[in-house]
Amino acid sequence: MEQLIKDLKLQIKNALNLEELPLEEFDENAPLFGDEGIGLDSIDILEIIVLLEKEYGIRLANPKEGKAIFQSVKTIAEYVQANRKK
Amino acid sequence: MISVLSTNITSPLGFTTEENYQAVLSGASALKRHKGWGLPEPFAASLFSEEQKDELAIEGYTFFEALAIRSIRKALTYTSLGNDFSRIVLILSTTKGNIEALGEELYYPSKAAQRIAEAVGLTTNPIVVCNACVSGLSAQLLADRLLSANLYDYAIVVGAEVQSKFIVSGFQALKAVSEEPCRPFDIERNGLNPGEGAATIIFARTSDKEGWCLMDGATCNDAFHIISPSPQGEGLTAAINTVMEGQDKSRLATVCVHGTATLYNDQMESKAIEQANLSDIPLSALKGYYGHTMGAAGVLETILTMRATDDGLVLPSKGFTEPGISGKVSISGEPQPTDKTAFLKIMSGFGGCNVAALFEKTTDNRQQTTGKTTLIKAHTIRISSDDGQTLTDIYKQQIGNYPKFYKMDILSRLAFVATELLKKVSPRGDLEGASPVILFNHSSSVVADRVYFDTIRDAENFFPSPSVFVYTLPNITTGEVAIRHHLCGETSFYILPKKDETLIQQILEATLSCSKARSVISGWIDAESDTSFECDLSMYNIIS
To answer: Is the Cα dihedral B472, B160, B91, B214 positive or negative?
Structure first.
């Protein structure tokens, strides 16, 4: 799980061009959306959906399903672990 | 105010305005479910058949060009524009033009526009309007300004779009495409359908006959998000209110809405319509017949609404049965009679832009020339890779602290950096909320187009990137600037064959003569890479 969280942080940072967010400050429990946390937006969600398909073979057709999954890197990691196909 | 002389619609439903109108009256739609172009997901779309393509093809031209040429030629058969070709301008509205020619000279939208202009016998430099979904209305507004400023006598406005794997995969990546025929404003709506076609309106500066006129128009940015409309629809409300100020709304037969059938667009439009006190005016949403024909949509839907109003009808909103929006509106899947002779056309699009335009059938179409506006260049910023610094270096050393910089494509980064530097040298107060942002270039969004194409090139590694696709519309640059500086005035992006200072100045002056803004940000912006870019951006003050 720890390795998966580490991988996801790097993959998300690269896919979303989070250039000014150092990996060591990327908290897996921080909320990804809204002003409090990492501050991602709706296009970023869609890009994470692509990332999950590309890296883990997970197809998420409806972005609405993603609300619970995309709360934090931690919740994404839990979802990936349970559903990954590669 | 300018007069409509002649029109044409060339679509899968017919090759003349009349054929199209009759097809729509009979309830026809060209929307069909497709699975092709190597796309993993099916989609519903309105596409030309192979037989229709063969019939429309012109040797030596791409299908996109042939479509526009055919449409213009048809429109020209109904009218004569005289012999002074220096007084006729072509305005091409498209979002992706010859995108299939990416990598070739033909890709450049201004090249296509030149080839189309020459094919129909024009000699002036064409202007390409690339304002995403609203382009077709923006192009008509530009025609109004150029003719009202007496720069030309006639404007040929052609909107055209050909669908492709490039466009459809991008909208699918944005989860915006429906597999079924779209259902504008309906509770069951779940996305748009791509459509292809061309539509032409020939406008005259003056006409002595009774007929349709474009009376007025306005463009307002949401300054909210590059692709999501502001939920409260402030920008669209402001555009409608600007156009309807002092007008009697009881003259309106209909409001022809954008109605893409995406959840967010239709909801936002319903809010804006209610806020603008137009809840009792019947709406017509026409995407159920043609899908979203993108660059053609604003022209095509305007023509169809003129024709239906001539016939005393408000067209049924095909696909609509039960309202699925929270704003109070009057919309119906049935035709409604009308005896009115004016309508409002509204559109909203990526980049946060919203346009409203008022059309009316009138005999009072005497020539009106707008007052001359003089623009004074207050400040100019020139940045170029020739100075030795990369764009990222300039950002890091002189700006910083805007993480979104790294998410932008190269063109938006350049516009962002230049605007930041321009703001540094401008005294406070020059930039106000209504200041328009009007940018020009030659190469459209070629870099973003290449980057996006790389994500769909390989069938084995097919992962279309939504965040890259968004930037394949060059007017997103104007949206980024509007968001950063909370600018809610007009935003426009024009593509020209070359940096033609005279034409740019004419477009700016004609635009600002119709505006209440006191300053404008405008300039030339072209970028190949972090180490190859050129931007010449100015803050102008307006003296009317």
So the answer is: negative
